[in-house]
């Protein structure tokens, strides 16, 4: 997004500051990696005061989580295809594409950075996980209401997301589409 | 290990240098985290020349992998209980204990550090994975030879190790023993 697009963004000053800060964080992560910049550096890059960031997000950890969640929601929205198999296949394929892409392990790297960062980090990681779990459970609840099989979000985490994340972490890529579909089929 | 124990260690100079370098790496990881020291710093701490490290290990990445593998083999050796269920339960419980312990995520942190560290890092991560997979497959092959069910190391990675690692990464700890046993039972 360039300066002009940012200025045109609807929602007034608060939305504009939010977008500038998100962009600054995204840039700093890609330049330096997680854990290698401060709130002051984000503020300077975004052209806002440190205090604006602390007032709105409370901590660097909470800000990082917010940026990651926004990115996940934009790139891997929960699908609604009308069937559980369709939803899970679509979701699994999206996640596979995302985590094997150029900034692939952003979420995993963030989780690692947060989990080594004391109580605020753990709390932020927990908030991120809780929000995505809520979205995933809503998708699974729609299936249950249609009379399809009843799954918990934790089953999806353990047997679809976890194997994909770990293979990417260990450099076992690419993830073959047949193998990804197989994870879904086995769970169903 | 103190200096005197190190000096008494059998195997002569090469084994002594190996132990000193391993200890230096372990200390530096716990003080600074992965990715925050150089071969020169390891050499200085171990009291050896940089060139000795390059000659023996080739790169910092290969050295980190060697240290992690030695640690894994010491703390989570592959069990041989006489039954596949026993072996898998024992192994899963060991891994659960290890990754929720004080230096819990050492392997995952190393994998993340290596995977963001270019071709040498990826190659080192692959070597680590290959060695542990070979050990795991040997355990599974013994079960197959006894006429028990035939599993691949990749099944164990995907459905036992991966869910545990991801839960620890996301701060969803402790890992309940019943849940860990459940992963094994489901796979069998």
How is this structure best summarized?
The structure is a homodimer of 188-residue chains. Chain A is mainly alpha-helical and 188 residues long.
Architecture overview:
2 copies of one chain form a homodimer. By secondary structure, chain A is an all-alpha fold. The first copy, chain A, has 2 domains: about 1-60, Orthogonal Bundle (Arc Repressor Mutant, subunit A); about 60-188, Orthogonal Bundle (Tetracycline Repressor, domain 2), CATH 1.10.357. Chain A is about 75% helix and about 0% strand. Chain A is built from 10 helices and no strands. The longest helix of chain A is centred in the last third of the chain and has 28 residues, at about 120-145. Residues about 5-10 of chain A have low confidence and may be disordered. Chains A, B: GO terms for molecular function: DNA-binding transcription factor activity; transcription cis-regulatory region binding. Chains A, B: InterPro entries: Homeodomain-like_sf, HTH-type_TetR-like_transc_reg, HTH_TetR, Tet_transcr_reg_TetR-rel_C_sf, TetR_C. Chains A, B: Keywords: DNA-binding, Transcription, Transcription regulation. Chains A, B: This is TetR family transcriptional regulator.
Radius of gyration of chain A: 18 Å
Stretches of chain A where pLDDT is under 50 for at least 5 consecutive residues are 3-9
Structural class by sheet pairing and helices of chain A: mainly alpha
Largest interface comes to: A-B, 28 and 28 residues
Q: What oligomerization state is this entry in?
A: homodimer
CATH-scheme architecture of the largest domain in chain A? Orthogonal Bundle
Question: What is the typical, i.e. mean, pLDDT of chain A?
Answer: 85
| Annotated CATH topology of the largest domain in chain A | Tetracycline Repressor, domain 2
Number of helices of chain A: 10
Number of strands of chain A: 0
Q: Whole-Å distance between the termini of chain A? A: 41 Å
Taken from the alpha-carbon principal axes, the silhouette of chain A is globular
Protein name (chains A, B): TetR family transcriptional regulator
Keywords (chains A, B): DNA-binding, Transcription, Transcription regulation
InterPro entries (chains A, B): Homeodomain-like_sf, HTH-type_TetR-like_transc_reg, HTH_TetR, Tet_transcr_reg_TetR-rel_C_sf, TetR_C
GO molecular function (chains A, B): DNA-binding transcription factor activity; transcription cis-regulatory region binding
């Amino acid at each position: 997004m360039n300066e002009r697009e940012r200025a045109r963004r609807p929602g007034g000053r608060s939305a504009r500051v939010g977008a500038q800060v998100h962009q600054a964080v995204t840039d700093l992560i890609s330049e330096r990696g997680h854990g290698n910049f401060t709130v002051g550096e984000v503020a300077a890059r975004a052209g806002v005061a440190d205090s604006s960031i602390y007032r709105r997000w409370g901590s660097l950890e909470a800000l990082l989580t917010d940026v990651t969640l926004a990115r996940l929601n934009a790139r891997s929205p929960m699908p609604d295809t009308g069937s559980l198999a369709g939803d899970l296949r679509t979701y699994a394929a999206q996640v596979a594409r995302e985590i094997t892409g150029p900034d692939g392990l952003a979420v995993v790297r963030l989780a690692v950075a947060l989990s080594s960062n004391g109580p605020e980090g753990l709390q932020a990681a927990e908030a991120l996980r809780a929000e995505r779990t809520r979205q995933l459970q809503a998708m699974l609840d729609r299936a249950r209401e249609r009379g399809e099989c009843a799954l918990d979000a934790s089953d999806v985490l353990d047997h679809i997301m976890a194997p994909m994340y770990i293979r990417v972490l260990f450099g076992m890529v690419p993830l073959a589409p047949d193998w990804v579909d197989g994870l879904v089929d086995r769970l169903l």
